[in-house]
Write a structure and sequence with these properties.
Length: 375
Amino acid sequence: MATRGSAVKKGRQNKKSLPLDEIYRGEVADLLAKLPDECIDLVVSSPPYNLGKEYEAKVALEHYLEEQAAVLRECSRILKKTGSIMWQVGAFSHNGTLIPLDIRFFPILESFGLIPRNRIVWVRQHGVHARKKFSCRHETIIWFTKSDDYVFNLDAVRVPQKYQNKKYWKGEKHGQLSCNPDGKNPGDIWVFRNVKHNHEEQTIHPCQFPEDLIARIVLATTNKGGVIFDPYMGVGTVAVVARDLGRHFMGAESDDRYHSVAVRRISGEPDEDNCFPNLKTLRDYVERTGKPIERFRFDVQVGKQATDRSKAKIYPEEHHLAELEERLTYEEAAFAADLRGEERPVDRKLNGGAGNGRKRKTRKRASREEERTLF
């Protein structure tokens, strides 16, 4: 019978034999075949999911799910008993139909004995406008654990309370704080800004994780020194975040261009042309070395000169969440005003607030006019 001490010793030996802090250039199946059982604390990834984006081929849905099941089966095998899988997916769209992929992934993950913990909605405020259905404005992150004895560090990811210093107003606890002074649980609706133009993390990859989103996952589900695995490493966001938070990383990337960008991000150094993979890596380097920023460029640079961080407009997730709530509240109020033939409320952020409080033909009026036309 193995003792606790021998299990710990075996774990240390396994860690020494792992390709820690490396990104395998090639197919993930080849890397998975080399890894021992129960050596990973967290699997987190955003697999290619058949949205027709430029970096992925259109594959029949069922065949795609079979391929993903094979990868997830191996990910479950290498996951520790205390480990988690965070799988971020969107939707499969074909000929006007839309299938949320998390619905298809739930039974796959449960078939490996994994336990569902959360379905996190990652809201996007912008995107393609649909014409024959409601525009898709979210993707999901599904969280599964291998057992009931899993890591969850809530204190590491708390966010500010909505009502600061709220207190009990009666009873035995009168005058005492009724909320945690360290903050609240961030909940399962996340609004991290998408990495697109004007985002300092943007690289040549058309669809990458925001580092803050991965940081929340890593801090919540692993401890320092833990091992994080991304089977589809892309341009290395998971690796960068793991390194910065004192964790180890492993993963695979089959695209040579993305693998190169990931290696350059981890290195943090300019290439032979004094170029960096993104603006964030450039800014970090300049702050670290004190060298003038005008000597360097980054891959997706448009302007003549990169700007330093003091001129950047970088907002936390709480800011984007508040903006989303404000915008949705306005849209619902405008819709209600249209229904009742009232003047729309003014959106001060829309064209300076000018001309957007006008009355519109209401749905009731439009309906009556349509009736007169028909009869």
